């Protein structure tokens, strides 16, 4: 009788300890607004420099890239110190988390007001500190897509890099964010049996 009660107690404790789901939908829990690290990198010269901004809600992250007016002597001189049009440069807005729950999936949309086109502003995902570009420099000024990351180990996030930071800024919007997976019932059942067997074995030896 005592053994049966011990097993029942272990089962009850297990059901309370194990989450019903390891899936997080939307920017909630450890991925809630304010839980991400936002960084504004590089130096903007020129006139009216704006390093960008990030607006976070439970459903949408909006990342606005940096921009400024061109520095002398020419109207096409990059405002980003060290920046070159069309190439990833030092001026960037990053939004990053170190909470890892593969896979990460999301939908994204991108629009740039840069008069030179998408080459002036690049958007993509940051995985373990490495950039994976999602926006197409040869595409339209408005783009969108869906993406999934399965190999994050240390960090995950997004970036908007203004390559020259003149001519207009870009805005990237991230929605339908999901992290992790729902454990399969069979996996939970096998785990439960293993733990219950361990509890029974310890009780028997005691």
* Secondary-structure arrangement, i.e. CATH architecture of the largest domain: Sandwich
Helix content: 10-25%
Radius of gyration: 24 Å
Q: How can the largest sheet be summarized?
A: 6 strands, antiparallel
Low-confidence stretches: 1-20
What structural class is derived from the secondary structure elements?
Answer: alpha+beta
CATH third-tier fold name of the largest domain: Jelly Rolls
Task: Give the tally of structural domains.
Answer: 2
Q: What is the name of the CATH class of the largest domain?
A: Mainly Beta
Share of residues in strands: 35-45%
Concise summary:
By secondary structure, this protein is an alpha+beta fold. 18% of the residues lie in helices and 35% in strands. The chain folds into two domains: 1-21 and 182-206, no CATH class; 22-181, Jelly Rolls (Sandwich), CATH 2.60.120.
